[in-house]
Amino acid sequence: SVLNDSKYGWDKPDDSTLRLSLLRSPGVIRKFRHQGFQDLGHHRFTYALYGHGGDWSEADTVWQAARLNQPLMAFRTGSHAGALGRQLTFLETSSRSVAVRSLKREEAGRRVVVRLQETSGIEQDSVELTFPTDIRNAAEVDGNEEHVGPTRIHEGRVLTELGPFEPKAVALEIADPTIALTPPRCLAVPLPWNLAATRAQNQPARAGLDGKGHSIPAELYPQRVRSGGVEFRLGPASGGSLNALICHGQSIQLPAEDFNRVHLLAASVRGIQHHAFRLGEDEQTLRLHPFSGWLESWRESTSWPFHRPTLIAGSVRPLAPVVAWYATHRHDSRGSDEPYVFCYLYHHVLDLKRHHRALELPVSADIRLFALTLAAEAISDTQSAAIRLD
Q: Between residues 281 and 303, which one has the greater pLDDT?
């Protein structure tokens, strides 16, 4: 079996040959010209050869591929009391041939939706789904999460069956846990807006968000964003309203309350930027990514093209910021849509001590802040145990 992490074109022209396509550049004429160079440039990918007896289904090729694409993630944290024991399985299927493709909250309600798929090509007559607490009720739903029919429950577990390669979605109501974590206590801090980051359709903007007339579409700009359990409150969405902050060394006063994290929604307008934010005598450097473009395609010094960012040593946090929100297009200086030119807001975190009473922003015309939230988090020192260097 040939395994890979990002290349999806393959074929088997004869019984002794397996081929994997690495590059593809389709021809384009006038529309969607960016697709004509989408595979040009620097590529990073992984492939592996997995030798085995029998066919792929007997040899668990699907599991080997999952190990390559979704390796176990390790995190480190400080010692703290816990009531769940040394291990906890959040969701388990009784068959190795049934994969959990997604786990999510349903769009219109509070149930949990589990999307399953049979992966071996063999019918599964009786598959059990087990959660840490009992399942109160369950129903099969379709891709739009519309009701299809009831699903059996036995001793707090869901029982279902799947045909060869069949996908199936089940919506579940899970009993409340006996132990619950305390969610972060959050407080939104107002920012002194000095820039209009959004524009409505057909609303011209000479400078825009980046000084070149580009703006975030006002029709998509939210009032609130939740990321990692933290809520951000953004400025007014109407086109032309002040809702972003250019950093000129301003000092943002913080309330004298017991918070231990500063959460920022931010982005740069010119390539990847490294800038220090000061809390009292402490400096913490953040790595800010461009508000627009294609993710994982920036050099360190410019926003174009084709090279993934490289981490630098020092106080820069080891992993790239989280994308907290994105828009599917951008507006140009005339207010016209630029399809497939995405916009992003990134979630950054700073450590906050009790004696810190002000956040001093860096001096950079290339940084934009969109929201600031303080949070009191019960476990604030959990972080990835691995550093990814590209």
A: 281
- Reported as a single tens digit per residue, the pLDDT across 187-206 is 999 999 999 999 999 999 98
- Order across the sheet with 251-253: list the strands: 251-253, 358-360, 273-279, 282-288
Three-state DSSP at 197 gives coil
CB neighbour list of residue 158: distance below 8 Å, 6 or more residues apart = 128, 129, 135, 138, 151, 152, 170, 172
Helix ranges restricted to H, 31-125: 61-69
What is the amino acid identity at position 278?
R
Exposed, middle or buried, 245 (CB in 10 Å: 0-12/13-18/19+)? buried
DSSP three-state, residue 327 = strand
Indicate the pTM of the whole model. 0.72
Q: Is the link from the previous residue into 305 a cis peptide, with omega within 30 of 0?
A: yes
In tens, the pLDDT along 58-96 reads 899 999 999 999 888 888 877 777 788 888 899 999 999
End-to-end CA distance of the chain: 27
